[in-house]
Design goal:
The chain starts with a strand and ends in a 16-residue tail after the last strand. It has a 6-stranded mixed β-sheet with strand order 3-2-1-4-5-6, with helices on both faces. The protein has 8 helices and 6 strands. It has one domain: 2-Layer Sandwich (Nucleotidyltransferase, domain 5). The chain is an alpha/beta fold.
């Protein structure tokens, strides 16, 4: 099985470009080999009460956290050229795009795929494909939803289970089997639409 990394962002307010935490989980040959998270000082230091109530991250916790350019450097070092997955990737990759654009930080080169889309194809017919619902469906216990490290871990586990259930050699082969082609985030101006709600499913 190939190597990939799952990521998950939490945001401080309704704007996509307001990361206040990022989590990751690295899968290698079907085994989780690393996971973690760190706080980020959002570019606009403004926290909405609804966001705080969901993830529990407060302004005081992020006061001395790394600002976006430093946080992005740290994250890209962790990613290390691996294929990135996220559960509802338009949200998490949108966070990167908007935070980069808002701070005039060059975007990183990333290849990524969406486990939300993958789950809909591997396990069709479900009423909901939110991260907790898919985790429950396939027997993943211990998810602490909206904890960035835990969400990234569950996302990686979804990809691992999908690969095993379909008998694919690895995630790239499964994506190819399902007709899903990894997307590409390249350096340049933001060229997509943004969500008004800074919350992931």
């Amino acid at each position: 099985m190939s190597q990939f990394i799952a990521i998950d962002f939490e945001t401080a307010n309704e704007h996509l470009g307001s990361p206040c935490a990022v989590g990751w989980a690295i899968s290698e040959a079907g085994v989780m080999v690393d996971r973690g998270s760190f706080l980020i000082r959002p570019p606009e230091f403004r926290f909405n009460g609804i966001n705080i109530s969901i993830h529990g991250i407060t302004p005081n916790m992020c006061e001395d956290a790394p600002e976006w350019p430093e946080a992005l450097d740290r994250l890209t070092d962790i990613i290390g050229g691996r294929l990135v997955v996220a559960h509802y990737a338009p949200f998490d990759l949108g966070v990167i795009r908007h935070a980069c654009d808002d701070t005039r930080t060059p975007r990183p080169e990333l290849r990524y795929a969406c486990t939300y889309r993958l789950a809909r194809m591997v396990w069709p017919g479900q009423a909901c494909y939110s991260l907790p619902d898919v985790a429950d469906l396939i027997g993943i216990d211990g998810l602490n939803h909206h904890d960035a490290s835990s969400d990234a871990w569950a996302c990686a586990r979804i990809a691992e289970v999908a690969v095993r259930e379909r008998g694919a050699p690895g995630l790239p082969e499964l994506l190819d089997q399902m007709g899903i082609f990894p997307s590409h985030l390249a350096a340049g101006p933001f060229d997509g639409s943004s969500s008004a709600a800074g919350l992931s499913p």
